[in-house]
Design goal:
This protein has helices at about 5-80, 105-110, 125-150. By secondary structure, it is mostly helical. It has a domain at about 1-80.
Length: about 150
């Protein structure tokens, strides 16, 4: 084979390979674009599903709110329509039973479970007793701030 023929064959092969290369690159770009499109479609579907579940949750919450509002309306209408009955206290029982407001603080604060080893009693303090304690807790802060100022 002559060199000119060999050169021509090699050039033809090269041209075919370059065409194939450009074709493959185009195919690759098309496939990459399809991948991006499919990923976007998946993202859109995920968002749709997420929005649907959120809408369902909102719908459930709204229905529960409506149900509770209806129950509230029914319970608020019951005392208005039915007159409350007054209890007659017998003469032999002169001390009235304590109501929820009059119940001692100790009964409200005591735990329902029996204490294991130690017992703690909680008693309510008056506001006048609490105020001096707050002032006392503030005074160490003021002195520490004064001390800090002296060092600077």
């Amino acid at each position: 084979m002559s060199t000119s023929k060999e050169l021509e064959e090699l050039q033809n092969k090269r041209a075919k390979l370059e065409e194939e290369s450009t074709s493959l690159k185009e195919d690759q770009q098309n496939l990459e674009e399809r991948i991006k499109v499919l990923e976007e479609k998946i993202a859109v579907e995920d968002l749709k599903n997420n929005n649907k579940t959120t809408r369902d949750a909102i719908s459930n919450l709204e229905s529960k709110i409506n149900e509770l509002e209806e129950r509230l309306r029914k319970t608020s209408q019951m005392p208005e329509t039915a007159e409350p009955t007054k209890e007659v206290v017998s003469e032999w029982n002169e001390t009235p039973e304590p109501t929820e407001e009059e119940a001692p603080e100790a009964e409200k604060t005591m735990p329902e479970e029996p204490p294991e080893e130690e017992t703690v009693t909680v008693t309510a303090l008056e506001d006048s007793v609490i105020a001096p304690q707050e002032e006392a807790s503030e005074s160490p802060k003021k002195t520490s701030e004064k001390k800090k100022r002296k060092f600077f």
